[in-house]
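Bug #2210: token dump truncated for Histone deacetylase?
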Amino acid sequence: MFSIAYHPIYKHPLPEGHRFPMLKYELLPQQLLHEGTATEKMFFEPEIADLSNIFAVHSKEYVNHLLDLTLDARAARKIGFPLSAELVERELRIAQGTIQGVQNAIQDGVAFNIAGGTHHAYTNHGEAFCLLNDQAIGAQFLLNNTLAKKILIVDLDVHQGNGTAEIFQNNNAVFTFSMHGKSNYPFKKETSNLDIALPDSTSDDKYLKILNDTLPKLIETQKPDFVFYLSGVDILDTDKLGKLSCTIQGCKKRDEIVFELCEKYQIPVQCSMGGGYSPQIKTIIEGHSNTYRVAKDIFH
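Reproduced locally. Full output below:
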């Protein structure tokens, strides 16, 4: 049985124009419970993260500006959400959900955060709806507590994990792998340990072949003892912000590749949801639900 981090504040209401992307945080738990993929006892409500774990990744100056709501206007605009105490609390709880998740994954094999995947958050600033980098925080927590020696971050969101790449650019204990749309945001990419930039309209066959050719070799060469998986469903051909052409079935097969490798090599994996911006909410929910269904089949 795996665990799932979820808190009601994940569906924090935002001004008109921002509400649709947040709807999935309310509907996804309902769908997983309705179909029996998850049970109530699998969910836990994360507390607010201890600031020492946040400061291990993000600069104190930046975090204190978030906490005091004193971020300057330009920095706030880069984030894209109106800054509020509730939004900052939401990010701190998401971070703790991933911190708790990594500990649960060591025990259970896999753990989930309904939110997270905030890979555009840098050491000293946020952008693109990301304030704090939950998987980077979780990775540093593992290292600081000697729970892992080598970490592989597998970022398969359609957008490059630019913040994650910057945070770990000088840390040999973390290998960052990002496979993303070449012409998607961010237009100025950072340098991950391995970046694979895909051309527009990349379909299932090409996407899955590249992943199959790459990820097993990475695991064999890097020998990670923990994996973070960012499973954005914005690689779908229906996505408004993505430019790839993967189907629901292809996206599900992607999840199978990642989880089957983690299970084969007995590597614990923490999974955060990342992006998904298809026009119909049912498409987003189906894509994300498949990730949980696959994990249930493989790990249990």
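Output looks complete on our side. Residues 3-299 form a domain with the Arginase; Chain A fold (CATH 3.40.800.20). Marking as cannot-reproduce; reopen if the truncation happens again.
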